[in-house]
Amino acid sequence: MSDAPSTTATAPAPAPPGTATAPKPEATASPRRPARLVPARLPARLLGRLAGKAPARPPAAFLAVATAGGVAGLVLLVAVGKALALPVLIPPLAASAALVLAAPALPLAQPRSVVGGQLVSALVGFAALAVGGSSLWTAAVAGGLAIGAMATARTPHSPAAATSVIVVLTQPPALRFLGLLALATVLLVLVGILAGRSGRTARYPAYWW
Question: Are 121 and 163 contacting, i.e. CB atoms less than 8 angstroms apart?
Fold first, then answer.
């Protein structure tokens, strides 16, 4: 017979009768954490995309002066209109005030463009009205022609294109409308000058002519 040790596994000996056996510990699974739908910190590149490419928010002092100036300028136009018993505030002038007070350094906000652009566009509107009559078709053509006329006159002022449309649709008296429009734009420029002297916004105007 061979003297090599046997490799057969031997079963554990049974416990003697009357001996309590300890229960086998059961394997406990670790609790699964719910997956996070939104990461705690978004990557910097993603945050940059969400922020967009818009310019940074202006300082609080700039916002306060621009807002107060815009309110003051438009309320002034209403007061002048009440005193004259004539409509002075028209919608495009609110857009003009936004440029003068909130973007005083832009070419579109300079006095040459504010006053000149509004008057040039109004003249285009009256010319279109005389040729095509008062209709939406004529108003659309007048608005487009006003863009080219302002560019030719070097008085770009985007809100003024709407003035030509208003002229065609409302058919106001030409001389009175032009006089009130000139007065209103000059008043807005003066308000812009006062706001620019506050030291909280850019110096206005950047140029006169």
Answer: yes
Task: Say how far apart CA 69 and CA 189 lie, in whole Å.
Answer: 11
Q: How many CB atoms lie within 10 A of CB 136?
A: 10
What confidence tens digit (pLDDT) does each residue in 29-61 have? 555 655 555 555 656 666 667 777 888 888 999
Q: What DSSP designation does 107 have?
A: G
- Closest among 71, 115, 55 to 79, alpha carbons compared: 71
Please classify residue 57 by burial: count the beta carbons closer than 10 Å to its beta carbon, then call 0-12 exposed, 13-18 middle and 19+ buried. Answer: exposed
Low-confidence stretches of the chain (pLDDT < 50) are 1-2, 5-7, 9
Q: Which residue has the tokens 């006062």?
A: 194
- Scanning 52-201, the segments in alpha helix (DSSP H) are 60-84, 91-102, 111-132, 136-153, 159-170, 174-196
pTM metric for this prediction: 0.75
* Whole-number Å distance between alpha carbons of 106 and 50: 27
Q: Specify the pLDDT at position 165.
A: 98
Contacts of 148 (CB under 8 A, 6+ apart): none
Question: What Cα–Cα distance (Å) separates residue 9 from each residue in 5, 12, 14, 150?
Answer: 11, 9, 15, 103
End-to-end CA distance of the chain: give it in Å, rounded. Answer: 122
